[in-house]
Design goal:
This protein has 186 residues and is mainly β. The protein is built from 2 helices and 13 strands. The strands form 3 sheets. Strands 1, 2, 3, 4, 5, 6, 7 and 8 form an 8-stranded mixed sheet that branches. Strands 12-11-13 form a 3-stranded antiparallel sheet, with no helix packed on it.
Length: 186
């Protein structure tokens, strides 16, 4: 009876240790700083493609930056696609797993549907921005400087920059010029 309790306790502790809810949550742009850690990584789906000519037919989902300049990649092998399910092709995505080095960034390999989720819609408040800096544009208006967010595109953002920041620029000329250029217009 005592060994059964010990096994039950050990199983419970292991399940708590591996629980996605307890994993450290980080932005996709910061994942490369957490190589070797168990974490939940969240970002905006920038691109999704299947490497049908590659052995194992992997699917790659890049968060915040489109291929090939990705900073964070989600990997699903063909053998795991049934268990993982269909990942979204747009919007926000969070994945939980062991962060490993991948090219110039980081990746998490998914094996089941419990290792990813789409965050619930943000409340009416705007996502938290990484800075409160502003600049004066060519029209003399104060504009928020490019910033990372705690999740989702801010309602007044006009573009996502290649480095994962959101721009609030009022003109296309010069948008994201110090942030790797425009990844996509919003």
């Amino acid at each position: 009876m005592k060994s059964f309790r010990m096994l039950t306790l050990a199983g419970f502790l292991l399940s708590v240790a591996l629980s996605p809810a307890l994993a450290q949550s980080i932005a996709a742009a910061d994942a490369k700083n957490h190589i070797g850690e168990q974490a939940t990584v969240c970002g905006i789906v920038a691109s999704k493609h299947v490497a049908s000519q590659s052995r194992g037919t992997p699917t790659f989902v890049n968060l915040d930056k489109p291929y090939p300049s990705q900073s964070f990649t989600v990997l699903v092998w063909e053998r795991d696609k049934g268990a993982v399910g269909t990942l979204p092709s747009s919007g926000q995505l969070c994945v939980t797993g062991h962060v490993v080095q991948y090219h110039d960034g980081a990746e998490i390999e998914l094996h089941n549907a419990a290792s990813w989720y789409v965050p619930k819609a943000q409340s009416t408040s705007s996502p938290h921005l990484s800075n409160d800096s502003h600049y004066t544009n060519s029209d003399g208006q104060q504009v928020h400087s490019p910033a990372y967010t705690s999740g989702g595109a801010p309602s007044n953002a006009t573009a996502m920059c290649a480095d994962g920041t959101y721009s609030f620029s009022q003109h296309r000329s010069g948008t994201c010029s110090h942030h790797g250029g425009v990844a996509r217009w919003l």
